[in-house]
Amino acid sequence: MNKTGYIAARLLQIVPTFILIGLVVFVLTRLLPGDPVSAMLGDRATDEAVNRLRAQMGFDRSIWTQFLLFLERAVTGDFGSSIAYRVPVTRLIAERLPVTLTLTGLATIFALLMAVPLALVAALNANRWPDYVIRVVFQVGLSSPIFYVGLVLLTVLAAWLRIFPVGGFGETMLDHLWHLFLPAITLALSFAAVIMRNLRASLMEVLEAEFVEFARAKGLPRQIVLMRHVLRNALITTVTLVGLHIGALLGGAVITESVFAVPGVGRLMVDSIFARDYPVIQALTLVLAVIVSVVFLVTDLIQMTLDPRVTR
Amino acid sequence: MSAALPEDAAGEISGRKRTRRLRLTRVPAPLLAGVVVVSFFLLCAIAPEAIAPYDPIAFDYTALLSPPSLAHPFGTDQFGRDILSRTIAASTIDLQIAIFATIAPLVIGTLVGLFIGYYGGWADILFGRLVDLVVTFPFLVIVIAIVAVLGPGLFNMYVAVSVIGWVFYARLTRGEVMVLQQYDYVAAAKVLGYSQARILFRHILPNAARPVLVYWMTDMALAILLGSSLGYLGLGAQPPTAEWGVLIADGKNFFSQAWWITVFPGFAIVLCGIGFSLLGDGLADLLDVKR
């Protein structure tokens, strides 16, 4: 298959994925105990109000019509109103999504900054003490729940040493970033462990490869061989890993935002469960899944440019 | 792929068989460490009252928020309850989570993967689409969404995790079965006219089960992380049930004065997670599973 064909096929593939995501979220709301309308309006709603909302949401029509209606609304970004905040769900999410995306973006950068140099050190010293120390530290990181790491960092660095703010989000742009620093580090730690383990393995594989031996034999300086030949090739799998990890990162953001009181969609989701704010939960599940599938698509395309073998 | 073959397929691989037997005499160090750590927690989970120095729910107004000391190695909380005893008591729930959140996915996923991998066809195509779909939902987000529908609580958390979790076991088993099917011993079993059930369960399953077993260990570590996270958020175990995440959430308001209420239950989560990871690594080593 040629390059254009591959891209076209991959782009088309996302349409059925979107529809299926919609189906899952639709079914999920159907599983709500009792009638979704009475669940939304509460026990004290009048029959008239229930019937009006039923008709408005199309519950008096066939299940397939309802699903199509749901898809149509989702495409136009109409998820109804939040029960708790009494504003359109779309607005609520639009306000908070950038915060969560900034948090996950920062966390990815921090994770790479931690993992790449350490993976290099570990791979070059494979099975010697620096390798062991780094691996033990990361094994601990991998086994530590995010909320716990967050609480410890929050107490030590924010409450005791007063280096960072204890929570919240600040006023200005720079202030926002400052407030997101500690949450991003928290989210980055376990991710860094995953990247580091993967990158260490692929670095060791590439270090054994014939082309690396050839580059050395050619008399290229050590630095150049490491950067241009070894790291570049090993990082291809890391790009894929970062892309595939977006779901775990967004899930981690839900917990991190709850610990640090960051006003993103993750905290909104947890708050909405306690408020029984089903339209918000439904819309967020859908939006986050769509984000993940778009990131998967972008990852595939990036991987294709980095590694032309993929299309063959 | 270094999937070792079963005894009845010996013949040409007798050399490999010998090394395998040799390997069994040497227990990998991670496995030993994992067994020790996990057994310790199992002991705490089975008989907390025998190990805990105090009653985990007994109030002691003479020792409120007291820091770690000889009498209370992990300190006490705002009601004077002994944190060490509470951490030990909570291991009962957390080890239950490790098992109950993974057992249904393990059994159902392995069986589904076995059949899909063996028979293929339209079920396999459908399953491929299902996997693509499931991975687009962030695991924690879909679990939270399902818990939102069912209502918070331990049982509903097990249901939510199982609804999604079996897919990963099925994917793993399916892949293994596809590889194993190409081995001569499976073809031989077919030629011998063995029943499909016999081939599936006697010849393929025992070999396909080894990577699944290794994955199960990692999955139990993940289940404890997930269970305690949901407990912390108030969506899993509900207070006053002693669960590590719930204990940490209990202490979070006292964190700057009484750090010990949260720090020590956290240690338990980390140590238990490392225990299961070591168990997984060691088993992978012992069973010759490539990860």
TrEMBL record, chain A:
The keyword Disulfide bond does not apply. It comes from the Bacteria. InterPro entries: BPD_transp_1_N, MetI-like, MetI-like_sf. The chain crosses the membrane at residues 12-32, 101-124, 136-164, 176-195, 234-260, 280-302. The keyword Cell membrane applies. Gene3D superfamilies: MetI-like. Keywords: Cell membrane, Membrane, Transmembrane, Transmembrane helix, Transport. It is found in: Cell membrane. Belongs to the binding-protein-dependent transport system permease family. This is ABC transporter permease. It comes from Alsobacter ponti.
Automatic annotation (TrEMBL), chain B:
It is found in: Cell membrane. The keyword Repressor does not apply. Pfam families: BPD_transp_1. Keywords: Cell membrane, Membrane, Peptide transport, Protein transport, Transmembrane, Transmembrane helix, Transport. Residues 91-280 form the ABC transmembrane type-1 domain. The chain crosses the membrane at residues 27-48, 97-118, 130-149, 155-172, 212-237, 257-280. Its main location: membrane. The keyword Transferase does not apply. It is a multi-pass membrane protein. InterPro entries: BP-dependent_transpt_permease (IPR050366), MetI-like (IPR000515), MetI-like_sf (IPR035906). Belongs to the binding-protein-dependent transport system permease family. PANTHER family: D,D-DIPEPTIDE TRANSPORT SYSTEM PERMEASE PROTEIN DDPC-RELATED, OLIGOPEPTIDE TRANSPORT SYSTEM PERMEASE PROTEIN APPC. This is ABC transporter permease.
